Amino acid sequence: MRKAKSIISLLHVAKLCVTMLCVAIMIFTLTACNIISGNNLGSNQFDEYDQFSEYDQFSEFDHFGEYDQDGDYARDREFNQVNEFNASLVDERFELIALVFRLAGIFPFADDFTDYQRLLNDTFSGFAEHPAVAFARSTLQFFEKEAVLWLAIHLRKEEGIFVIEDSESLYNNPRWRQGRGIALVDFLNDFYVVTNFSTFFQDQTEYFMEHSGQFGYEILGHINIEWFRQYGLNPGNMHVILSPSFSRGFSAGWVDSEYLAEKIFYTVVPTSANYPIGWYLPQIINMFVYAFAIPLSEVWLIENSEFSRWVHDSLDFRRMPFIPSVEVMAREYVARAHAILYMVENAEADLRSQLFSVYILGLRYIQEVYALITAHEKIDFPTMDMAALGIGEYRLYEEQTFDTGDLIITWQFLDLLGHEIILDDLVRVHLHDLFGSQTGQALYVFLDNLKYLYVDIGCGTYEGWPEGVRRYFVMPITD
To answer: What is the chain's Cα-based Rg?
Structure first.
């Protein structure tokens, strides 16, 4: 991890970008658009990890905040956090549960990339054997971060302790059934008291407010939240949680509120030294889109035979092991199509690039699905394989390796023997600063059993990213 820190500092003051959002971190970063990001505002109390330099080629398929620090749901608030940047977006409930998972050593909560995360370790390491931590370590080891958010948003604080609210909604997530949710909350309340977490949390208010203001100004202020009304979502029920202890990707969840007789959606995002809009905006939109894409995909699978055929025909466990089922493939098609529509209508994203980025990674019918939600004339995509790129004979340079702590990334540059790849038809699928490549260079990147061809198509400053970040066309290799 210290090695990671040294590489990250090359990006400027730091930043992360993972997700095998299962460390299945998946290449669906592809919806990022060509928007210029804002500048870093001021200096932070802690030395930040740059959210975008660690390997985050993949994006989990998570589902969907704001929590008033006095413990009450902000249910009656509009998405006015866009305009009220003086409110903290850091959620005490989520931070508390994330701390328990951190002490239990559970990915992805155990990172120590930032001074704040190291402060958590230093302050609370003496409680690593507390019953809450032991329970998480023994029983909840393989829970995803989405489950942590799900529990957090179903808690309410009463007289200094946390209680489960909307229990039926909580149990919609099967990970919290069979008494696991009740047991953890009992342990959690004791942990909250003996660690004096409340005081620690309040002591960080200035730090939380600084990040919340910066994030609100650079990201939330650019979201057209009214766009979601046409899909039955109430902007007043769409919330964002900002987490400084959480370094890996984005997650989402919801509460089926009896109080409002509708769902309240939350997405949690990690803090960073800066907040490039070209990364954060599409990811947040993806999370909110899942709110209606999941039920819509279920209906289409049953009622639309063509859609069902496209979904079944797209399954390819070798090429896309991170899409393990028909249901997941269906929701990805529907979610990605709507996310592209949002980006085109609200962020001036290039439609061809957006569609091709999804197509090249295996969702071959993305244009057909896109045409189900808006008027669309099919665009001809170029055939993309090694031969089409003009790569015939080549030599491989020496293998290089980087250990992120959670997976090992291996890559080899290709000596193209004098051939130059024509970059005109290649779209940016991924951003990275790790490989040290130059425009036109090609390399193989290996992740576990997955192999990809990366082609450097230019520097990231074109899209507002810091010096050192490169733009890559990415193509899975299955032979």
So the answer is: 22
State the Cα–Cα distance between residues 257 and 255, nearest whole angstrom. 5
Does a cis peptide bond (omega within 30 degrees of 0) precede residue 270? no
Question: Distance (Å, rounded) from C-alpha 236 to C-alpha 239?
Answer: 8
The secondary structure element, H or E, covering residue 239 is: strand 238-243
Query: Around Cβ 125, how many Cβ atoms within 10 Å?
Result: 10
Grouping H, G, I as helix, E, B as strand and the rest as coil, residue 58 is strand
Is 45 within 8 Å of 129 (Cβ atoms)?
no
**CB-based contacts of 148: which residues, under 8 Å, 6+ apart?**
94, 97, 98, 101, 109, 251
Residues sharing a CB contact under 8 Å with residue 212, sequence separation 6 or more, in sequence order: 85, 87, 88, 89, 90, 242
**Predicted pLDDT at 35:** 27
pTM surpassing 0.85? no
Instruction: Give the ranges where 50-152 is alpha helix by DSSP (H).
Output: 92-103, 115-124, 131-139, 145-152
pLDDT digits (tens, 9 = 90+) for 228-287: 999 989 998 999 999 999 876 788 888 887 666 778 899 999 998 888 887 889 889 999
Q: What is the mean pLDDT of the chain?
A: 78
Burial class (CB in 10 A: 0-12, 13-18, 19+), 348: exposed
What distance in Å separates the CA atoms of residue 254 and residue 266, rounded to the nearest whole number? 6
Cα separation, 70 vs 425, whole angstroms: 53
Domain boundaries, the chain: 395-477
DSSP state of 401: E
- Cα distance between residue 231 and residue 139, in whole Å: 38
pLDDT: is 471 or 41 the higher one? 471
Enclosing H/E stretch for 293 = helix 277-303
Question: Closest Cα partner for 337 from 368, 310, 307?
Answer: 368
